[in-house]
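I have been asked to look over a protein record a colleague put together. The record follows directly below this note.
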Amino acid sequence: MTRDDTRGLNRRDVFRIGAAGAAGLAVAGTAAFGGTAANAATTGGAGTLLAADEFDGPAGSAPNSAIWRYDTGAGGWGNGELQTYTDSRRNSALDGAGNLVITARREADGSYTSARLTTQGTYTAQYGRVEARIRIPWGQGIWPAFWMLGADLPQVGWPACGEIDVMEAIGRDPDTVYGTVHGPGYSGAQGISAAYRSPDGSAFADAFHVFAVDWRPGSVSWSVDGQTYRTVTPADTNGAPWVFDKPFFVVLNVAVGGGWPGNPDATTRFPQQMTVDSLRVFQN
């Protein structure tokens, strides 16, 4: 994968640190948010379900504030992106049918808005199967992502904190998604990456798919709909530090433009939506 992913190099005004340690994700078996994994885990086919957000709630409401914070603002986000991230319901809201919808819009003045949601300061995971069932958007210049960053980002910066991209896609390649890790010595265009192409050639925007990493001490494996397509271990870093044996938080966003996807053109339709049916963390 070729891109200039310098995302995170100028993060001083990007992340808003919340109260650390709050276990915001709904835990399996609980009717409300805010339990702890230790007291309510259940077992299923993918392992023991530790935590989940099923995005239940009234249409037009905000996602659960005990879980999700917002990164807001413009400035390119280190990648030359065009959108301004907002916390408006126009850009992120529940749809009333058990989904979170992140909407990228072209505004009347020609600018772009979207949303970037993060669990920084509310929830972290360390190891297990981290998965989301998502229908991604499409179109030239559209860049959806489901990814994770090391919780020590404020202390060590990027890429020393580590980044695990569970799923990224660029709209001009509708049948392909990517999984990548970034760390010191293998970040940006040198990230360790793999592509997964739809087996039947269909666009990932046509249906929901489950994007996941199975994350263990010393390894990260990517899968789509249960099909594993790449495993990375410390042997793949060529001696550079392995920075993935620690807590990470989750990010969901849709970017517009940037060095890797390129900018929207006359073929790009707006609004574009990433629909997230569930986010789940299993112990495996």
Q: What stands out?
A: The mean pLDDT is 87.
